[in-house]
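re the bet — no i am not wrong, look at it urself. input seq straight from the record:
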Amino acid sequence: MRDIVLVVVVCLLSCISNGSAEQEKKPCADPMSRQFDFWVGDWEVKTPDGKAAGTSSIQLILDNCIIFENWTGASGYHGKSLNVYNSTIGKWQQFWVDNQGGSLYFAGEFRDTALWFQGESIDRDGNKLLEHLTFFPLAEDHVRQLWEQSKDGGKTWVVVFDGHYYRKK
């Protein structure tokens, strides 16, 4: 009986030890994975001239590895994005979907105090578009999101969305 108790105690200690090691190995706790945390929160979003653009709730999910966006536009346009730092390729990735059947994929990096994404898409006429999506942390409670598109291979850019996120109090 004493041998069985000893085996059970050793197994339990081993499990506790392994559990602690797993807890210490948090794959998304590294500084690169935390670069976009400034966007996490509940936001009122306005255009540069102060008009309501919508609201956004940004949450950390899946053991704080994914930044999940829930966008509700003032005009009825809704969308969601999944954002992750992919340490294998050393880039941030965003996958966006919306209530109009649209989707976008971006990859980027944090540089010059902002998160810079790039992507490509196809418009309804089959033309290739270049996409820029930049997030600027302007203050603790203020983030600017600038989305630009180019139809001419990057020679000229048009602003698609310029949103100023103000943290809800």
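see?? The radius of gyration is 21 Å. told u. also The chain has a mean pLDDT of 89. so pay up
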